[in-house]
Amino acid sequence: GRDFTAYFARPVLQMILQQPIVAAARAGQFDIIATGAGGGLSGQAGAVRHGLSKALTYFEPGLRSVLKKGGFLTRDSR
After folding, report:
1. What is the model's pLDDT at position 11?
2. Per-residue pLDDT for the chain (78 aa), expressed as one digit of tens each?
3. What is the pTM of this model?
4. Can you tell me the distance from the alpha carbon of 63 to that of 48, in angstroms, rounded to the nearest whole number?
5. Residue 57 backbone dihedrals phi, psi, to 5 degrees
């Protein structure tokens, strides 16, 4: 229920969350609501980035190559 800048206070984490949107050149085009649970803030930011990237590819399959090249669709197998 909070803005991502309030929850992820560190600028690095905010950058991680915005990477797929910036790479896809879709800044300002979507309203995003995400829920993360467990782990630390860094892990949650990475999980939201991955989920956001997958959602973008479902919405617009042509973005897959851009997001794959950026490494945003690679799942952390741990």
Report:
1. 95
2. 888 899 999 999 999 999 999 999 999 898 999 998 889 999 999 999 999 999 999 999 999 999 999 999 988 777
3. 0.89
4. 17
5. -70, -30
Query: Which helix (H) or strand (E) covers residue 78, if one does?
Result: none
The DSSP code for 63 is G
Give the separation between CA 3 and CA 52, rounded to whole angstroms: 16
Radius of gyration of the chain (CA): 12
Residue indicated by tokens 């929850």: 7
Q: What is the DSSP string of 2-19?
A: --HHHHS-SHHHHHHHHH
Residues for the chain: how many in total? Answer: 78
> CA 42, CA 37: separation in Å to the nearest integer?
12
